[in-house]
Each structure stands twice: as C-alpha cells, then as structure tokens.
Amino acid sequence: MKKTGKAGQRSITTFFKPSSPNITEQHACQTVDTPEFNSSSGRRRVELSQDEGPCSSQQFTHSHFEYDIGDYKRRNKVEDQIKFNYLTGHWRPGRYFEFPSKEYRYAKKVVRLKFQRSWLDAFKWLAYSPSQDGAYCVFCRLFAADAVNGQQLGQFVTEPMQNWKKARENCRNHARKEYHAMALLRADGFETTHKTGTVVERMSSQERKAIANREALISIIEAVIFCGRENIPLRGHRDSGRLGNDSGQHSRNEGHFRALLRYSISSGNKYLSEHFATAPANALYQCGEIQNEIAEICGNLIRKTIVERVAAAKYFSILADETSDVAQLEQLSLSVRYVQVDRNMHGCIREEFLGFIEPKNLTGRALADLLIQTLTSWNMAPINMRGQGYDGAANMSGRFNGVQALVREQFPSATYTHCSSHILNHVLSHACGNATIRRTIKSIREVIVFFANSPKRGEILKEAISVICPNTRRTKLVPFCATRWVERHDAVLVFWEKYSAIVHALGEIENGDDNASTKESAVECQQRIRTMEFLTCLNMLVTVLGTTRALSVALQAVNMDLIKCAELVSNVVDTFKEIMANVEDKFSSIFENVLSVVRAHEIPMIWRGLRSATASVDDVKSHALENTFKPFVQNIIKELEERFGNTFRRAAQCFDILPARINSGSCAGTSDLELFRLYEDDLDDLVTLQNEMAIWRRKWRNADPASIPTNALSAFDSAPDHIFPNIRRLLQILVTLPITTASVERSFSTLRRLKTYLRNSVKSVRLNGLALMHIHREIELSESDVLREFVNKSSRRIRIAN
User: Fold this and answer.
1) What is the pTM of this model?
2) Helix or strand or coil: residue 240?
C-alpha cells in the first residue's frame, strides 16, 4: 500500500498507532498518575501513564507537574524529604508526551526543533521541566555551590537550557564543569545518608553512649573551670548524691558546683540529665576528689603553656617568697620572669605565677633543693636560669648557706638580686629610727585603727570629710598595709590631707559618744595628734614619702630593668641631696605649713625636750631642724646609697652596652672580657663579641638622641639577632634579671582569697589548680584537652567518644 500525502488519507504508520480519541482538558489532566509513596525507597513515584495517548505540555496546568525540577527553589531552605523526592522522583515525561517545538533558522530556512527524549538516556543527570520548557541538571539544581573556582552557575542550574540546536554540545560542556562533579558527589552522599540514616542514627548504642558521656563530662569540666576562673567556692555543706529533681534541693547547701550543674540541667542539658539519671553511683564524677583532679589538670595545662613560653625564650629568672596561710601552713610562692618575643621580634617582659609549694623545712639547703627539684619536675631547665629574686631573709639571701648561694653553686650564671621594694622598705624603716619620727608613725597607726575598728566611728569620720574636704575622692583613711608598699606612703599623705576632718571627728566622738572607753580613746588620740611635734614630723614624712612614692610605684612595674632601677634610685638620692643643700629654705616652707594648721586648731607650741614656757617659735623651728629633719634626710641618703649601691653598681658596670650610656659617654669602662667571662656559656667567642661591641658602640655613639633606645628592652628590640646575636643575648639577660618580687606578693592576695576561714582545709593540689585558673585568666583552657587528660589518668574511666 502506498503512502499518500493528500488530505484526508492516512499513512501506513497510522495503522500501527493506538487510536487517539479527542482529549478534553479535564481528560488530559488525568494522564498524570497520582503520586504514590514507595515504601522500599521512601519516595513518591511520579510519572505519566505509558498507556495514555499523546499530549503536549500546553495541555497541563502548572499544578499537575508534581516535583517539576523547574519549580525547585534553590535559595529556600528545603526539608531533606522534599529534596530527596526531587532527586529520585522528579517529573519525567511519559511515552507519548509531545514536547513543544521552537523555530530556528538554517541557511535562510525555518525549521522547528524540540527536546528529544533520547537526551534523557544519553545524559542521566538531565531532567525536563514542562512548566519552563527547558532542561536542568538534577544534581546541580539541588546541590551545586554558588561558585567553584570562578565557575559561575548558569544554564542547567539557575536557568533552563532551551537551545535545542546546540543541546548535546551544551550537555557535554556542562558535564565537564567542576561544580557538576562536586554536585554529583554531594547527591550520592545525600541519597546514601537519607536511605541508611545519619551517622549518629547508624551508630551503635555504645557509640551514642560514648558521645553522651563526653558531653556530660565536658559540662562538669566547664562548671569547675567557671568556679576556678571567678574564684567561686565549689564545695557545699551537703554535696553528695545524685542530682535529681528532688524538692529539698534548696533547703540544703549543696555548693556552687552542684548548683551550676542543676542550672545546666534545668536549662535543657539532656546529656547531663541522662548522665546523673543512668550512670552508676561510682561514675557520677561530681565528688570532691574529681573536682580536685579536674582543677589539677587545668592548672597543669596552664603551667605547661607558661613553661613552653619560657622554653621559647630560653633565659629566665625565678622569683620566690614565703608566707603562711590561714591554716598556719608555710606556702612558698614561685613566679618566673622572662622575655617573650612576638612575630615582629619585639620583646615583652612577663612575670607569671607558677604555683605554691608547701616546704617542710625552711633551711636554705632544703629550700634550694626543693626549688631545683620543682623546676625540674615542671620541665624547666635550671641551667638556663639567669636570675634569682628573693627578699632579704637569711635563709634566702645568705651569702654562704642561703638559697641564692646554694643555687649559684650549681648554676653560677643565676645572679641574685635583692627585691628592690623590700630594700626601699628597709631604707624607710631604718631612716625612721629617730624617736620623734617613730612616735609620729605610731600615733598615725593608732588613729587609723581607732576609726577602722568601728563602723560608727568610721561613719562619723566620713561625714566630717564630706563637710570639711568636699572635693576629695577618699572618704576614709588608708591603713598601713603589710605587703603593699605604696599604701604605706599613701597612708601618711592621706592622713595629712584629712587632718582637719580627723580632729573634728575625734571631737564629735568625745562629746557625743556614750561609751566611756571610746571617749577616753578619742581624747588620747587627740592628745597625740594635737601637738606641734606631731604636725611637724607628719609634714616631714609627707615631704620624704612624697619623694619616694614615685620610686616605690616604678619599682613594682613589670617592665622595669636593672639599669633603669639604678638610675631612678640615683635620681631620688640626688633629690634628697638637693634638699640637704637648701635644707633651711626647705624646712622653712614645711614649718610655715605647720604653723598655719597650729593657728587654725589652736594647738599649743609643745615639743619634747623644750621648755614650753620659755620656748619661742624660732626655738621650736631650730630644734626640729637640727634634731629631727636633718638627721632624717641624712639617714635616708645613707640608707639608699648603702643598700642599693653595691648590688646595682655591680650590675650596671657589667652592662655598659646600653645605647643611652654609650651616647652620653657615661660607661664605666667595663671590658668586653669581663662580660665574656660572666656569660661565657651564652656567647659565641670573645673575638666575635669584641667585633659586635665595636660595631654596636660605633652605631650609637653619634646617633640622633631622639632615636636612641631609653631602656634595655627597647635596646633589645634594636639589636637584630642576625647582626648582633651576642649583644641581643646580653640585653635579654639584662632584661630578665628581676627587680622586685611584687608579682609574688600579689599571689599572696590570691592565696588569701582562695584559702579563707571557711576554706582552710584546701590542699596543695586543689589550691594550685584554682590559683592558676584565677590568676591566669588570659590563658585559654580547652575543655577537650582537659577531658582527654582526665580520661587518660585512669583506665577505669567511662568510655567517651574521640
């Protein structure tokens, strides 16, 4: 039978096609099967019935193409189940689906092209969107990143590919894209995970339990670290047993540690709640022993960080001092001084607390052995110790059997320097040996104690200060502190500033208090301070201590070096010598201040040793000048020169390499050979040192004064290691030498806050851990590191996830 092209005649191929009845829009819509849930794959199966007749995409409304890949919104957050449905059950055309065609021009001819079903078989990732009449890559549409190595997304991803003329070429180019390969891997992982479940869901019960144990222990560790950082006591009166929802929890003192854990549970910590509900009684990890162990680990990790910094610096100095705690136990506090160098090779002086030690024997030999053993146990190399800083106690500073001498027997380079703040304190104590000055200081202390021992008397003084001295910041007197030397200076200066208010307050107490003993004490205090002798000596102390206060503050600075300290002491000595050179004029100004107060308060002109009936103002002035003020200032000059002179003069002579001393020509003439002999183990050789010193001195001798480093640390920064390696080491050692033990004294304040009357049984392990956490807040602690150390300490710990 022949084919005919005439209208109304059928071709031979039409006899082999099923008949296509007229399809109405309503009937055409039924060609899409109702989505059914496939229980085996967990997805919806969406496809056209292959038994239906031909239909085109124009016959369908948008809502009937369920999981049309063109409807997927990339920017929206899509549930995993919906994304899985798009991946495995996106809309596919049925057998008789007719794709719409488009017109294209070929050599002045117009042809109509359309999407070809064979492309779906050739490119498995390809999907057709009937709503947009375009092709998409299923994997890239669902999982492609916005950009990979500069490859921007376009056709097949953010917009459909609709160029049927170059469809195969475009598909091949897309398959070579890097983001297509990555999307393919992501799609494979997503489908596998969705079918088999997430990693946690596929874990065994033991693995899930290990994760829960880890999270619970980290919560416990965080509670210990929080209490340690904030110096909060952990223990309570009754702090044992499981943490549950018992109603009597608030009626007993469980301590802050358990309170924090309860708060964490009530805030939704399911791991911690499950731990205390299901863990064995011997594995709750909340008792005092566990707290001590965690605190010890935290302290060790902090100390390890400090030791690593010291090892990087190589040279260090040890600072030590001893005190007794509230339990009458001896505590030896150790700190380390070293130079930390940053990435720009600039140095920074650091003094950091290392820990408390309970010495059993306080002899010099026992303390020296304990010191070296402790440093070795902390992985610090005593052979790199270049300085020792202690107070003046005989067992520490003794020339033969003191700690410093015994340590130098083993490590000769460990130079000893007496704490400068202690020296200044001794200078002032011995200078105040004059009986008149001593009586004045005693009277000041008694008045301060009188007001400090009673809140009522303190309030009276506060009101008097607010009325008489309205512009002052201080509303109470400063006590004579045992360890804070600056406050000793302030105590005298504030007493003189508030003198009128003190006298007024004592008068109010004398006239208004009902207690006879209090009245009597107020009268005695007035009799002590309402004298010409007291006021004159008080002004002398103000003058002297006003001069030494700046030195006291400067000595306690961490960035103070030995040469700068010697220069400051020399400046103070020169200041007192200037006072002695013009002593009469200086004392006249002091005496005039005294007379103005004497007249204002109607104080009698009384001075011990002078007959008050016949003594004139000039007699009192002359007697005070010759018998009190001159000896007082002369004693201070003598004590400063004797106590500071030997130590710092010897150190200054060994370090005539500071640029400021070279430029000013004030070098002591110390030979390079002396420097080499002193630190031979730290230097290369004598010839190299001499060559470096020659270049170094030539560099700074004619330099611009504005560019010359003013201290040892800035000189250290100006000595590059590749040009002046030996000079840089010498300057580092100079900066490392200790000036005071102020940082150790500050650790005593922490000790008093940690070991109180209610916490007097804190043992050494717990004390050191809490002290290190509280003092070194800037050193970060990783809960994971603490947990790892905690679990590794015993083989019987509960299993945790890595």
Assistant:
1) 0.71
2) coil
